[in-house]
Amino acid sequence: MDTTADITAMRRAIALAARGLGATSPNPVVGCVVLDAAGQSAGEGFHRRAGGPHAEIHALREAGERARGGTAYVTLEPCNHTGRTGPCAQALLDAGIRRVVYAVGDPNPQATGGADTLRAEGVQVEQGLLADEAEAGNTAWLTSVRLGRPYVLWKYAATLDGRAAAADATSRWITSAESRADVHRLRAEADAVVVGSGTARADDPQLGVRGIDGAVQPLRVVVDTGATAVKPGARVLDGSAPTLVAVAEDADAAHLPKDAVLRLPRAADGPGLDVPALLAALHARGVRSVLLEGGPVLAGSFVAAGTVDTVVGYLAPVLLGAGPAALADAGITTLSQALRLAVTETVRIGPDLRVTAVPVPARKGN
Protein backbone atom coordinates (compact mmCIF):
# COMPACT_ATOMS: atom_id res chain seq x y z
CA MET A 1 0.00 0.00 0.00
CA ASP A 2 1.28 3.43 -0.92
CA THR A 3 2.02 5.57 2.13
CA THR A 4 1.60 9.29 2.58
CA ALA A 5 5.38 9.60 2.23
CA ASP A 6 5.26 7.75 -1.09
CA ILE A 7 2.55 10.03 -2.46
CA THR A 8 4.31 13.17 -1.24
CA ALA A 9 7.61 12.14 -2.83
CA MET A 10 6.03 11.23 -6.17
CA ARG A 11 4.02 14.44 -6.29
CA ARG A 12 7.25 16.34 -5.70
CA ALA A 13 8.87 14.39 -8.57
CA ILE A 14 5.99 15.34 -10.88
CA ALA A 15 6.39 19.01 -9.96
CA LEU A 16 10.13 18.79 -10.64
CA ALA A 17 9.53 17.18 -14.04
CA ALA A 18 7.41 20.15 -15.13
CA ARG A 19 10.46 22.41 -14.84
CA GLY A 20 11.89 20.76 -17.94
CA LEU A 21 8.95 21.50 -20.23
CA GLY A 22 10.15 23.00 -23.49
CA ALA A 23 13.83 22.21 -22.91
CA THR A 24 14.23 18.42 -23.08
CA SER A 25 12.96 17.46 -26.53
CA PRO A 26 13.23 14.95 -28.09
CA ASN A 27 13.50 13.44 -24.61
CA PRO A 28 10.68 13.32 -22.03
CA VAL A 29 10.33 15.48 -18.96
CA VAL A 30 11.21 13.43 -15.88
CA GLY A 31 11.49 14.16 -12.17
CA CYS A 32 13.13 12.09 -9.43
CA VAL A 33 13.17 12.21 -5.62
CA VAL A 34 15.45 10.02 -3.47
CA LEU A 35 14.67 9.23 0.16
CA ASP A 36 17.34 7.67 2.35
CA ALA A 37 16.92 4.40 4.25
CA ALA A 38 15.27 6.30 7.11
CA GLY A 39 12.71 7.85 4.75
CA GLN A 40 14.23 11.33 4.81
CA SER A 41 14.72 13.43 1.69
CA ALA A 42 18.25 12.94 0.36
CA GLY A 43 18.24 14.26 -3.20
CA GLU A 44 16.06 15.39 -6.07
CA GLY A 45 16.42 16.40 -9.68
CA PHE A 46 14.81 16.71 -13.08
CA HIS A 47 15.87 16.28 -16.70
CA ARG A 48 16.94 19.78 -17.69
CA ARG A 49 17.96 19.47 -21.33
CA ALA A 50 18.43 16.89 -24.05
CA GLY A 51 21.91 15.41 -23.90
CA GLY A 52 22.34 16.29 -20.24
CA PRO A 53 22.06 14.07 -17.17
CA HIS A 54 18.70 12.45 -16.57
CA ALA A 55 16.59 13.19 -13.51
CA GLU A 56 17.85 10.14 -11.62
CA ILE A 57 21.47 11.20 -12.05
CA HIS A 58 20.84 14.67 -10.65
CA ALA A 59 18.99 13.20 -7.65
CA LEU A 60 21.62 10.52 -6.97
CA ARG A 61 24.45 13.05 -7.15
CA GLU A 62 22.70 15.21 -4.58
CA ALA A 63 21.97 12.23 -2.36
CA GLY A 64 25.50 10.81 -2.46
CA GLU A 65 26.06 7.97 0.01
CA ARG A 66 22.65 8.60 1.57
CA ALA A 67 21.11 6.92 -1.48
CA ARG A 68 22.39 3.51 -0.36
CA GLY A 69 19.47 1.48 0.95
CA GLY A 70 17.03 4.21 0.00
CA THR A 71 14.04 4.66 -2.32
CA ALA A 72 13.90 6.47 -5.66
CA TYR A 73 10.62 7.94 -6.92
CA VAL A 74 10.64 8.57 -10.68
CA THR A 75 7.85 9.88 -12.91
CA LEU A 76 8.90 7.62 -15.82
CA GLU A 77 10.38 4.11 -15.80
CA PRO A 78 14.19 4.41 -15.51
CA CYS A 79 15.81 4.01 -18.91
CA ASN A 80 17.73 0.87 -19.76
CA HIS A 81 19.84 1.99 -22.72
CA THR A 82 22.95 3.99 -23.45
CA GLY A 83 22.35 7.04 -25.61
CA ARG A 84 24.03 10.36 -25.01
CA THR A 85 23.99 9.34 -21.34
CA GLY A 86 24.23 5.97 -19.60
CA PRO A 87 21.33 3.81 -18.42
CA CYS A 88 19.61 5.15 -15.32
CA ALA A 89 18.66 1.65 -14.16
CA GLN A 90 22.35 0.83 -13.79
CA ALA A 91 23.03 4.13 -12.03
CA LEU A 92 20.35 3.31 -9.46
CA LEU A 93 21.92 -0.11 -8.91
CA ASP A 94 25.40 1.36 -8.54
CA ALA A 95 24.09 3.85 -5.96
CA GLY A 96 22.66 1.04 -3.83
CA ILE A 97 19.00 2.01 -4.18
CA ARG A 98 16.87 -0.82 -2.76
CA ARG A 99 13.40 0.32 -3.86
CA VAL A 100 12.22 2.12 -6.99
CA VAL A 101 8.71 3.54 -7.43
CA TYR A 102 7.85 4.87 -10.88
CA ALA A 103 4.61 6.31 -12.21
CA VAL A 104 4.48 5.55 -15.96
CA GLY A 105 6.06 2.77 -17.97
CA ASP A 106 8.39 3.85 -20.77
CA PRO A 107 6.70 3.19 -24.16
CA ASN A 108 9.93 3.82 -26.06
CA PRO A 109 11.14 0.38 -27.23
CA GLN A 110 14.75 1.62 -27.21
CA ALA A 111 14.68 2.64 -23.57
CA THR A 112 12.21 0.33 -21.85
CA GLY A 113 13.25 -2.58 -19.65
CA GLY A 114 14.70 -0.65 -16.74
CA ALA A 115 12.20 -2.10 -14.30
CA ASP A 116 13.09 -5.67 -15.31
CA THR A 117 16.80 -4.94 -14.94
CA LEU A 118 16.27 -3.59 -11.44
CA ARG A 119 14.07 -6.51 -10.37
CA ALA A 120 16.64 -9.00 -11.68
CA GLU A 121 19.15 -7.48 -9.25
CA GLY A 122 16.82 -7.76 -6.29
CA VAL A 123 15.52 -4.20 -6.19
CA GLN A 124 11.90 -3.81 -5.09
CA VAL A 125 10.11 -2.13 -8.04
CA GLU A 126 6.59 -0.68 -8.02
CA GLN A 127 4.70 0.96 -10.89
CA GLY A 128 1.63 3.18 -11.17
CA LEU A 129 1.78 5.62 -8.24
CA LEU A 130 0.05 8.86 -9.40
CA ALA A 131 0.26 7.56 -12.96
CA ASP A 132 -2.52 9.83 -14.27
CA GLU A 133 -0.85 12.95 -12.89
CA ALA A 134 2.56 11.95 -14.24
CA GLU A 135 1.10 11.07 -17.63
CA ALA A 136 -0.67 14.43 -17.86
CA GLY A 137 2.59 16.24 -17.19
CA ASN A 138 4.38 14.27 -19.91
CA THR A 139 1.50 14.00 -22.38
CA ALA A 140 3.32 15.62 -25.30
CA TRP A 141 6.24 13.20 -25.30
CA LEU A 142 4.10 10.17 -24.56
CA THR A 143 1.74 11.06 -27.41
CA SER A 144 4.62 11.50 -29.82
CA VAL A 145 6.08 8.09 -28.96
CA ARG A 146 2.76 6.28 -29.13
CA LEU A 147 1.53 7.91 -32.37
CA GLY A 148 4.83 8.51 -34.13
CA ARG A 149 4.03 12.18 -34.73
CA PRO A 150 4.24 15.35 -32.65
CA TYR A 151 1.58 16.09 -30.06
CA VAL A 152 -0.57 18.99 -31.28
CA LEU A 153 -2.13 21.62 -29.02
CA TRP A 154 -4.41 24.01 -30.91
CA LYS A 155 -4.67 27.40 -29.27
CA TYR A 156 -7.12 30.05 -30.38
CA ALA A 157 -8.53 33.33 -29.12
CA ALA A 158 -12.16 34.26 -29.75
CA THR A 159 -15.07 36.36 -28.61
CA LEU A 160 -17.83 34.80 -26.58
CA ASP A 161 -19.79 34.32 -29.80
CA GLY A 162 -16.88 32.45 -31.39
CA ARG A 163 -15.40 35.12 -33.65
CA ALA A 164 -11.65 35.19 -34.26
CA ALA A 165 -11.80 38.64 -35.88
CA ALA A 166 -14.27 41.37 -36.75
CA ALA A 167 -16.00 41.68 -40.11
CA ASP A 168 -13.25 44.06 -41.28
CA ALA A 169 -10.60 41.45 -40.32
CA THR A 170 -9.30 43.38 -37.30
CA SER A 171 -8.32 41.04 -34.48
CA ARG A 172 -5.94 42.96 -32.22
CA TRP A 173 -6.71 42.54 -29.50
CA ILE A 174 -9.71 40.32 -28.79
CA THR A 175 -8.27 38.90 -25.58
CA SER A 176 -6.48 40.61 -22.72
CA ALA A 177 -2.79 41.23 -22.06
CA GLU A 178 -2.98 38.54 -19.39
CA SER A 179 -4.16 35.96 -21.93
CA ARG A 180 -1.46 36.98 -24.40
CA ALA A 181 1.18 36.54 -21.70
CA ASP A 182 -0.20 33.10 -20.95
CA VAL A 183 0.21 32.14 -24.61
CA HIS A 184 3.93 32.81 -24.27
CA ARG A 185 3.98 30.13 -21.57
CA LEU A 186 2.45 27.71 -24.07
CA ARG A 187 5.08 28.69 -26.64
CA ALA A 188 7.85 28.13 -24.11
CA GLU A 189 6.58 24.60 -23.48
CA ALA A 190 6.34 23.68 -27.18
CA ASP A 191 9.03 22.49 -29.57
CA ALA A 192 7.43 24.25 -32.54
CA VAL A 193 4.87 27.00 -33.13
CA VAL A 194 2.85 26.67 -36.35
CA VAL A 195 0.78 29.31 -38.16
CA GLY A 196 -0.73 29.57 -41.61
CA SER A 197 -0.32 31.97 -44.50
CA GLY A 198 -3.36 34.03 -43.49
CA THR A 199 -1.84 34.80 -40.10
CA ALA A 200 1.53 35.54 -41.72
CA ARG A 201 -0.06 38.06 -44.10
CA ALA A 202 -2.32 39.73 -41.56
CA ASP A 203 -0.02 39.95 -38.55
CA ASP A 204 3.59 39.40 -39.68
CA PRO A 205 4.10 37.51 -36.38
CA GLN A 206 7.49 37.00 -34.80
CA LEU A 207 6.33 33.83 -32.97
CA GLY A 208 9.05 33.91 -30.34
CA VAL A 209 8.76 33.54 -26.58
CA ARG A 210 8.85 36.77 -24.60
CA GLY A 211 8.67 37.45 -20.89
CA ILE A 212 9.81 34.01 -19.69
CA ASP A 213 13.34 33.79 -18.31
CA GLY A 214 15.47 30.95 -19.66
CA ALA A 215 12.92 29.86 -22.25
CA VAL A 216 14.19 27.86 -25.22
CA GLN A 217 12.89 29.48 -28.39
CA PRO A 218 10.68 27.06 -30.33
CA LEU A 219 11.03 26.26 -34.01
CA ARG A 220 8.83 28.71 -35.94
CA VAL A 221 6.83 27.16 -38.77
CA VAL A 222 4.71 28.99 -41.33
CA VAL A 223 2.53 26.88 -43.61
CA ASP A 224 2.72 28.96 -46.79
CA THR A 225 1.59 26.61 -49.56
CA GLY A 226 2.22 28.92 -52.48
CA ALA A 227 5.25 30.66 -50.91
CA THR A 228 3.50 34.02 -51.22
CA ALA A 229 2.87 35.07 -47.60
CA VAL A 230 6.39 35.17 -46.10
CA LYS A 231 8.39 37.93 -47.74
CA PRO A 232 12.05 38.88 -47.30
CA GLY A 233 12.27 40.93 -44.12
CA ALA A 234 9.38 39.13 -42.43
CA ARG A 235 9.73 39.08 -38.65
CA VAL A 236 9.67 35.28 -38.63
CA LEU A 237 12.96 35.38 -40.58
CA ASP A 238 14.71 37.65 -38.05
CA GLY A 239 17.23 34.98 -36.99
CA SER A 240 16.25 35.03 -33.33
CA ALA A 241 14.99 31.43 -33.54
CA PRO A 242 15.04 28.64 -36.14
CA THR A 243 12.37 28.93 -38.84
CA LEU A 244 10.79 26.69 -41.45
CA VAL A 245 8.47 27.86 -44.21
CA ALA A 246 6.47 24.87 -45.44
CA VAL A 247 5.63 25.22 -49.12
CA ALA A 248 4.25 23.01 -51.87
CA GLU A 249 6.69 20.91 -53.84
CA ASP A 250 6.02 22.99 -56.97
CA ALA A 251 6.05 26.43 -55.30
CA ASP A 252 8.53 29.13 -56.33
CA ALA A 253 10.40 29.81 -53.08
CA ALA A 254 13.53 31.41 -54.53
CA HIS A 255 12.98 34.53 -52.40
CA LEU A 256 13.26 32.52 -49.16
CA PRO A 257 16.45 31.31 -47.45
CA LYS A 258 17.15 27.81 -48.73
CA ASP A 259 17.67 26.32 -45.28
CA ALA A 260 14.27 27.66 -44.18
CA VAL A 261 12.25 26.01 -46.96
CA LEU A 262 10.43 22.75 -46.26
CA ARG A 263 8.81 21.28 -49.38
CA LEU A 264 5.77 19.06 -48.83
CA PRO A 265 3.06 17.46 -50.96
CA ARG A 266 -0.24 19.25 -51.35
CA ALA A 267 -3.28 17.92 -49.53
CA ALA A 268 -5.13 15.24 -51.48
CA ASP A 269 -8.48 16.86 -50.66
CA GLY A 270 -8.88 20.60 -50.47
CA PRO A 271 -6.33 23.42 -50.38
CA GLY A 272 -3.10 23.56 -48.45
CA LEU A 273 -0.43 21.03 -47.64
CA ASP A 274 -0.69 17.45 -46.44
CA VAL A 275 -0.93 17.75 -42.65
CA PRO A 276 0.37 14.24 -41.80
CA ALA A 277 3.36 14.89 -44.08
CA LEU A 278 4.06 18.15 -42.25
CA LEU A 279 3.92 16.46 -38.86
CA ALA A 280 6.11 13.60 -40.08
CA ALA A 281 8.73 16.07 -41.31
CA LEU A 282 8.70 17.90 -37.98
CA HIS A 283 8.91 14.63 -36.04
CA ALA A 284 11.96 13.66 -38.10
CA ARG A 285 13.57 16.92 -36.94
CA GLY A 286 13.08 16.01 -33.28
CA VAL A 287 9.87 18.00 -32.76
CA ARG A 288 7.71 16.22 -30.22
CA SER A 289 5.16 18.96 -29.45
CA VAL A 290 3.47 21.53 -31.67
CA LEU A 291 1.57 24.65 -30.65
CA LEU A 292 -0.86 25.35 -33.47
CA GLU A 293 -1.70 29.05 -33.32
CA GLY A 294 -3.86 29.29 -36.40
CA GLY A 295 -5.57 30.68 -38.16
CA PRO A 296 -9.01 29.19 -38.71
CA VAL A 297 -8.27 27.60 -42.10
CA LEU A 298 -5.11 25.83 -40.95
CA ALA A 299 -6.81 24.73 -37.74
CA GLY A 300 -9.63 23.28 -39.82
CA SER A 301 -7.18 21.20 -41.83
CA PHE A 302 -5.59 19.82 -38.64
CA VAL A 303 -8.99 18.93 -37.19
CA ALA A 304 -10.03 17.30 -40.47
CA ALA A 305 -6.83 15.23 -40.38
CA GLY A 306 -7.59 14.06 -36.84
CA THR A 307 -4.32 15.43 -35.51
CA VAL A 308 -5.46 17.81 -32.75
CA ASP A 309 -4.76 16.32 -29.31
CA THR A 310 -5.70 19.25 -27.07
CA VAL A 311 -7.67 22.45 -27.59
CA VAL A 312 -7.02 25.59 -25.55
CA GLY A 313 -9.47 28.41 -26.18
CA TYR A 314 -9.12 31.90 -24.74
CA LEU A 315 -12.63 33.35 -24.66
CA ALA A 316 -13.04 37.10 -24.22
CA PRO A 317 -16.24 38.65 -22.82
CA VAL A 318 -16.80 40.39 -26.16
CA LEU A 319 -19.52 40.11 -28.82
CA LEU A 320 -19.01 40.88 -32.52
CA GLY A 321 -21.92 39.19 -34.28
CA ALA A 322 -20.01 38.93 -37.56
CA GLY A 323 -16.53 38.03 -38.75
CA PRO A 324 -14.60 34.80 -39.28
CA ALA A 325 -15.18 31.94 -36.86
CA ALA A 326 -12.32 30.52 -34.80
CA LEU A 327 -12.49 27.30 -36.83
CA ALA A 328 -13.01 27.09 -40.59
CA ASP A 329 -14.07 24.06 -42.63
CA ALA A 330 -12.93 20.89 -40.86
CA GLY A 331 -14.71 18.42 -43.12
CA ILE A 332 -17.67 18.17 -40.74
CA THR A 333 -21.00 18.41 -42.56
CA THR A 334 -23.50 17.13 -40.01
CA LEU A 335 -23.88 17.12 -36.24
CA SER A 336 -23.25 13.39 -35.99
CA GLN A 337 -19.72 14.01 -37.31
CA ALA A 338 -18.91 16.69 -34.71
CA LEU A 339 -15.64 16.35 -32.84
CA ARG A 340 -16.79 15.95 -29.27
CA LEU A 341 -14.52 17.26 -26.53
CA ALA A 342 -14.14 16.70 -22.81
CA VAL A 343 -13.35 19.85 -20.85
CA THR A 344 -10.41 19.21 -18.54
CA GLU A 345 -9.88 22.70 -17.13
CA THR A 346 -11.45 26.16 -16.98
CA VAL A 347 -9.41 29.06 -15.58
CA ARG A 348 -9.96 32.81 -15.39
CA ILE A 349 -7.09 34.68 -17.06
CA GLY A 350 -7.62 38.36 -16.36
CA PRO A 351 -11.10 39.14 -17.75
CA ASP A 352 -10.99 36.12 -20.06
CA LEU A 353 -11.77 32.44 -19.66
CA ARG A 354 -9.24 29.78 -20.69
CA VAL A 355 -10.90 26.48 -21.57
CA THR A 356 -8.83 23.33 -22.10
CA ALA A 357 -10.44 20.29 -23.72
CA VAL A 358 -9.42 17.01 -25.33
CA PRO A 359 -11.18 14.93 -28.01
CA VAL A 360 -13.20 12.00 -26.76
CA PRO A 361 -13.66 8.79 -28.76
CA ALA A 362 -16.86 8.68 -30.77
CA ARG A 363 -19.51 6.43 -29.29
CA LYS A 364 -20.78 3.56 -31.39
CA GLY A 365 -23.96 4.47 -33.20
CA ASN A 366 -23.10 8.18 -33.45
TrEMBL record:
Protein name: Riboflavin biosynthesis protein RibD
Pathway involvement of the protein, from the record: Cofactor biosynthesis; riboflavin biosynthesis; 5-amino-6-(D-ribitylamino)uracil from GTP: step 2/4; Cofactor biosynthesis; riboflavin biosynthesis; 5-amino-6-(D-ribitylamino)uracil from GTP: step 3/4
Gene, per the UniProt record: ribD
Domain spans labelled CMP/dCMP-type deaminase: 4-126
UniProt remark on cofactor binding: Binds 1 zinc ion.
Biological role stated in the UniProt entry: Converts 2,5-diamino-6-(ribosylamino)-4(3h)-pyrimidinone 5'-phosphate into 5-amino-6-(ribosylamino)-2,4(1h,3h)-pyrimidinedione 5'-phosphate.
Co-factor(s): Zn(2+)
Disulfide bond among keywords: no
Catalytic activity: 2,5-diamino-6-hydroxy-4-(5-phosphoribosylamino)-pyrimidine + H2O + H(+) = 5-amino-6-(5-phospho-D-ribosylamino)uracil + NH4(+); 5-amino-6-(5-phospho-D-ribitylamino)uracil + NADP(+) = 5-amino-6-(5-phospho-D-ribosylamino)uracil + NADPH + H(+)
Matches recorded under Pfam families: dCMP_cyt_deam_1, RibD_C
Known EC number: 3.5.4.26, 1.1.1.193
GO molecular function: 5-amino-6-(5-phosphoribosylamino)uracil reductase activity; diaminohydroxyphosphoribosylaminopyrimidine deaminase activity
Keyword Hydrolase included in the entry's annotation: yes
UniProt KW keywords: Hydrolase, Metal-binding, Multifunctional enzyme, NADP, Oxidoreductase, Riboflavin biosynthesis, Zinc
Family to which this protein belongs: In the N-terminal section; belongs to the cytidine and deoxycytidylate deaminase family. In the C-terminal section; belongs to the HTP reductase family.
